[in-house]
Amino acid sequence: xxxYLSPEQAKRFYDRLGSRQDWQGFYENPAIxxxxxxxxxxxxxxxxxxxxxxxxxxxxxxxxxxxADARYVGxxxxxxxxxxxxxxxxxxxxxxxxxxxxxxxxxxxxDRSFDRFVxxxxxxxxxxxxxxxxxxxxxxxxxxxxxxxLVSMTFGTSAFSxxxxxxxQPLWRxxxxxxxxxxxxxxSGYLRSEWWKPNHQTKVTSWGISSEVLxxxxxxxxxxxxx
Length: 227
What we know:
By secondary structure, the protein is of the alpha/beta class. 36% of the residues lie in helices and 25% in strands. Strand 6 and strand 7 (209-218) form a beta hairpin.
């Protein structure tokens, strides 16, 4: 049995979930706060978000953190999420744009066109080969020195969080749709050293659920050749 949701299955699940996705903030927000604290969004000129959901993080960035002329592009596979994000980001419609994903890791943006690539609680839905392809696309669209900014569910760091993880894994193996396809992963294990220079990596646990926060800079190709 394939444990990973197909793009069609993921789309159906998140179309049904809709605005209830924001209810997951009770365990997601502490890790996202950690990401925001270390990603230097106040100096970003262009942000791409893979899996923008309801647009809650985008609205936070545009309202409080990004420079007034910074642009934002968000991508999501769910019709419902695209609609919700577009509505939420109407105050910034001149510089914030939401697009529909075709379910592939392909990103229809020019090379070196963003200085932040953001994705929160999406990589933990994806199959390993999809993650590898998506990280290749992230490296392509980022400017040299641009930041990869990721958060995902990860393995527990305490007795209680390890117990939560131990209970979560069988559900995902048996019926991944029950947990929306999410499962604990180690983000740092996917970074290719010739492409990425780690800047910040930590784990945050809230309500027994552990999340990995990872920020890395895109290496220049000549830097990659030297290492």
